[in-house]
Amino acid sequence: MTADRTTGRLLVSTPKLDDGIFHRSVILMLQHDESGAQGVVLNKPLGADVDSVLPGWGEHISTPQTLFQGGPVQLDSALGLITVPGDDDPPPGSQRLFGAVAIVDLDTPPLLVMPEAGGLRIFAGYAGWSSGQLEDEVRRGSWFVVDSFPEDLLTGDPDRLWEQVLLRQRDELAFVAYYPVDPELN
User: Fold this and answer.
1) Rg of the Cα atoms in the chain
2) CA–CA distance, 24 with 69 (Å, rounded to integer)
3) Among 82, 129, 137, 170, which is disulfide-ready with 117 (CB 3.0 to 4.6 Å)?
């Protein structure tokens, strides 16, 4: 796996990762190069009110309207991702990362950004890997690397995203979606 092949793709945790934030997680890879990798966990809603952390942004959040835990790194920071329809330029205060996904500067007034955005999700923290670390984890079988779909970022059903992503695979990965949460109860 070359580093640039995971940017814009999904990491889906294998059953080997059976506890903590990465248990049944789906991570959208925002950047991956020779210096390391960063992404955000798409399916770990925190149930926290966005306006209590970032006043003015809460009413613009896509359903479910909550803050998400983006990963275990820098939980005291927030990262906003928006979708930008078509090939339009991203709104002021944002920068396109890949495809329809853009990162937004949360210091920008929401009313400058949101009229041109298709949706918004805000994450507390992110997932990060040092140089070569992610490649080692993939080789050890901790992650499946699969293509992302535009609707993954703003899924309205984050609790089922792990299963949904696996079920849409056209190979044996689809069977992993049926892996029991607790194999001892099988």
Assistant:
1) 16
2) 14
3) 82
Our CA angle for 23, 151, 47, nearest 5°, is 50
Q: What are the backbone angles phi and psi of residue 179, rounded to the nearest 5°?
A: -65, 130
Helix (H, G, I), strand (E, B) or coil at 13: strand
Q: Span 3-180: which CATH code? A: 3.40.1740.10
**CA–CA gap between residue 125 and residue 88 (Å, rounded):** 28
- The DSSP code sequence of 136-162 is HHHHTTSEEEE---GGGTT-S-GGGHH
* Tokens encoding 78: 């927030």
> What would the DSSP string read from start to end of 89-104?
PPPTTEEEEETTEEEE
Burial-class residue 30 by CB neighbours within 10 Å (0-12, 13-18, 19+): buried
65 vs 158: CA distance, rounded Å: 12
